[in-house]
Write a structure and sequence with these properties.
single chain, alpha/beta, Rossmann fold, Alpha-Beta Plaits, 3 domains, six-stranded parallel beta sheet, 14 helices, Homoserine dehydrogenase, homoserine dehydrogenase activity, oxidoreductase
């Protein structure tokens, strides 16, 4: 009996695409033996066919027309690795309309157009696989949709951006300012030339949107989230946090109250107890903690980005695509299954700010003179924000002091109102810095 040949097209041969091509070429004999098919790397779409690449690809296999790969009836599996959302959306929809399997590492695409993509796949019999879109080589998507399928998820949180984690780690270890460490990260290739997507929290927000969909069956847009970055954190914040027994991490937090059926998704710098295992995850590594109502807490740690880690996840989806095409794997991969499983009750509502509760760290640069602390305390008292501790130290600017307040439990609306009123106080010299204090189970 002849062995079936499945043809794979790669739209995009940047860092990840080259990694996929390299590892599929090297591992193809073993994969073919395990899967019972022949795998052919049929075409690769690039902007510039003459550009030097780290892998040798025959010129005859290159094209500048990515949509031609999506439309090619002889190609069974289309890997969308171009990035962005415009061309990536066209490629994905074109391939799905032809009943193909599409593999994507594009969290921004899924966040912006996930509902349309899954609807198109359902209508035309295509499949959309996206393990590489979140946390690189960590198989978190398979864990949520397959391994933990018996669970509901009250809490998912973790480090989803390796660039920010590297910067924060270096700031703490070297007692170095943000701008210096950011420059080092760019030189080492850990940060893009335009770092804003990473350091302002949007990359993590896109990934959190994907995880929220997998866990709860609804799309939460970044504008519905609290999204804050790391640019205003200073070495002094690490010293203050350490004095309080905390480290600082940029975390994505997906919380659902199943009694009120409210959901919040947020990304922000967070003070984590130094003893917490996620607080010990440093450098470019990611970590995701998943709390299930049946299994309890599970934790996933690994490289969240980079050529090999992301290529590993893409190839994992290619293997699943082969199984789908051979009818060896069921509906667990389809968007229909995710939505049906997640919606065991009515879709959750987005929680209003007053229902998102926790403790807070607030740093103020103020005039160094009598009466300032009492004026600040009067503002917090009017908003029913109770102060738990105060740390006062000299500020970098002359004639100023740094005040760090920690609060008892409060809520996002009360803190927003507090900060709005503190800005109006004449002794407050700079924009307040607000960080959340984690209260997660170990």
């Amino acid at each position: 009996m002849s062995v079936r040949t499945l043809r794979i097209g790669l739209c995009g041969l940047g860092t990840v695409g080259q990694g996929v091509w390299k590892h599929l070429t090297a591992d193809r004999p073993e994969l073919e033996a395990r899967l019972g098919v022949k795998l052919e790397l049929a075409r690769g779409a690039v902007r510039n066919p003459k550009k030097r690449r780290s892998v040798r690809i025959p010129a005859s296999k290159l094209t500048t027309d990515a949509l031609a790969i999506a439309r090619d009836p002889s190609i069974d599996i289309v890997c969308e690795l171009v990035g962005g959302t415009d061309l990536a959306r066209e490629i994905t929809l074109e391939a799905l309309r032809r009943g193909k399997v599409v593999v994507s590492a594009n969290k921004a695409l899924i966040c912006a157009h996930g509902a349309e993509i899954f609807a198109t796949a359902r209508e035309h019999g295509g499949r959309f696989l996206f393990e590489a879109s979140v946390a690189g080589g960590i198989p978190i998507i398979k864990a949520l949709r397959e391994g933990l399928v018996a669970n509901r998820f009250p809490l998912i949180y973790g480090i989803l951006n390796g660039t920010c984690n590297y910067i924060l780690t270096q700031m703490e270890e070297r007692d170095a300012p943000y701008t210096q460490v950011l420059g080092d990260a760019k030189r080492l290739g850990y940060a893009e030339a335009d770092e804003s997507l990473d350091v302002e929290g949007w990359d993590a927000a896109h990934k959190a949107s994907v995880l929220a969909y997998l866990a709860h069956g609804v799309w939460v847009r970044p504008e519905q989230m609290i999204v804050e970055g790391i640019a205003r954190i200073t070495p002094a914040d690490f010293k203050n946090a350490n004095a309080l027994g905390f480290g600082i991490k940029l975390l994505a937090v997906i919380w659902r109250d199943f009694e009120t059926n409210e959901l919040s998704v947020r990304v922000h710098p967070t003070l984590l107890p130094e003893s917490h295992v996620v607080a010990k995850v440093n450098g470019v590594f990611n970590a995701i903690s998943v709390q299930g109502d049946v299994v309890g807490t599970t934790l996933y740690i690994g490289r969240g980005a980079g050529q090999d880690a992301t290529a590993s996840a893409v190839i994992s989806d290619i293997v699943d695509a082969v199984a789908l095409l051979r009818r060896q794997k069921g509906e667990m991969i389809d968007g229909d299954f995710i939505e049906t499983t997640a919606r065991r009750q009515a879709p959750p509502r987005i929680a209003p700010p007053e229902h998102i509760e926790g403790r807070y760290y607030l740093r103020l640069t103020v005039e160094d003179k009598p009466g300032v602390l009492s004026a600040i305390a009067a503002v917090t008292a009017r908003q029913h924000v109770s102060i738990a501790s105060v740390i006062q130290s000299p500020a970098e600017r002359a004639g100023a002091a740094s005040l760090v307040l920690t609060t008892h439990r409060s809520n996002e609306r009360a803190l927003r109102n507090t900060i709005a009123r503190l800005r109006r106080l004449r002794p407050v010299l700079e924009e307040p810095v607000l960080l959340r204090i984690a209260e997660f189970p170990e």
